[in-house]
Specification:
This protein is α/β, with parallel strands linked by helices. It folds into three domains: 196 residues, FAD/NAD(P)-binding domain (3-Layer(bba) Sandwich), CATH 3.50.50; 96 residues, protoporphyrinogen ix oxidase, domain 3 (Orthogonal Bundle); 106 residues, Alpha-Beta Complex (Polyamine Oxidase, Chain A, domain 2), CATH 3.90.660. The chain contains 19 helices and 20 strands. Strand 4 and strand 5 form a beta hairpin. It starts with a strand and ends in a 7-residue tail after the last helix. It binds flavin-adenine dinucleotide. Flavin-adenine dinucleotide (FAD) binds next to helix 1, strand 11, strand 19, helix 17 and helix 18.
Length: 476
Amino acid sequence: MSRTDSEPKIVVLGAGLAGLTAAWKLAERFSSRVLLVEREAFTGGMAHTFTDGEISYDFGSHRIHPSSAPEAMSVIRELLGEELVLRERHGRLRLNGKYMHYPPDLASFLKGLGLINTIRGGADFLAAKLRPPLEDGRAVSYEDCMIRRAGKRIYDLFYAPYAWKVYGINPKTLSSHAAKTRVSLKKPLAIARDLVMPKRPDKKYFYYPSRGIGTLAEEMEKRFRDLGGELLLDASPEAIRVGSERVQEVIVKHDGRLRSVRVETLVSSIPLRETIRLMDPGPSPAVTESARALRWRAIRFLYLCVNREFCCESETYYYPERQFLFGRISEPKRFSPYMVRVEGKTVICVEVLCGVGDMFWRMDDGGLLRHVQDDLIELGLLRSEKEVYRVFSKRLPAVYPVYDIPWPDNFRTIQRFLDSVKNLYAIGRGSLFLHDNMDHAIQMGLRIGEHLTRNDTKTHEWTTALAAFRHFEVRD
Ligand SMILES: Cc1cc2nc3c(=O)[nH]c(=O)nc-3n(C[C@H](O)[C@H](O)[C@H](O)COP(=O)(O)OP(=O)(O)OC[C@H]3O[C@@H](n4cnc5c(N)ncnc54)[C@H](O)[C@@H]3O)c2cc1C
């Protein structure tokens, strides 16, 4: 052990937007007593921008929605100032061989669906509404829930393939919770209301930082360091030592050395499974098993650097159907010209949903390109593979929580255990097994910052805040 801190620290694990916001806000009060530990060489987590020469890349298509929570929006404005740019939204979703606007308006939705599907889908929808309610009033599976909401035809056409693609499992085995977390899956009547309300701001505009989505994290990091906070990059927590129902110590590996950190409070925003694995002594087998049972869907981002000014008319295309390996394609230069600072070139980012270790996770970049290039040409996004002068990929292992039917029981088992450790707080997407947006991550960071500034224990107020995080609705 190379170093032991004399003063106990407030340790934050994970420097994504949730962990960074928390660390920054805590540093405003506790300054150098805050230690932020990040496994990667950069901050921002999923919302990171990396640069190579004159091109910058985000992890997939990231936009700031105008409907973001006001408190998160004011943080974003404070951090970005004039760099926050309002852009028109031109998303397209392909269904049944046709493109429609995304988020959809009524005309393009009906056009995309086609006459026959509209008539049959409408009849099915009415039939679904006439079915008697379930005995306990609640659908258990996603399939049950969505057929009851939308009818069988629309379910088969859109909701079932979409679920297969995002979660990688049969929608019969998916919990109805998956249908409740995304705005795009809400009740058809609510969708219908949105379809005929063309002025909803998320439909027309989005905000974007002119130098890439990662600017948000860069600005937070700067403020955190300026306040005296300590950030360890390329650092891994090796053990979380617990005694007397409190985290006493965290062992961190950094620069090849182990450091023992005495802990006053631990805020973890890393995947829950990791937090549980690091606990020493480990929790009961039931908790460990429950943590192992929480599965994640991964994404492989395939970046194609192309010898052309632009490839796409829209900034983002959505492909819910299973015939396409990818779920989404974006062109960063359409988000901001800064992203490609060289003439006659552009980039398209292809998001391939996969599982860690499966063939699409392991396949080399050239092989993955061969899998998608014919589709890209047929869809008119590429003219030929010869236009591509460079291809490379990045992987994110834990992106979409797989809400299978047993997940709520597994999560509750772990939650009960975490509640028993008095100075351990879980926030963020990974730690709460949450599908969320950036503004939600920022909100969670703000909440824990406020809470720990006023309290040194978990209060009823905190439990209420934690429960509210589960009700975040995801916008695409
Ligand atoms: C492709 C894609 C598109 C998206 N588009 C949008 C969008 O348009 N609008 C929007 O609002 N949101 C969008 N999101 C969601 C948004 O990016 C996330 O919800 C948000 O960034 C999550 O922040 P977080 O801090 O909770 O988690 P993360 O960003 O996952 O941060 C967790 C951090 O913990 C670190 N970590 C993990 N394990 C360890 C360990 N053992 N030790 C130390 N550190 C560790 C990770 O490296 C990471 O930095 C998108 C997400 C993706 C993947």
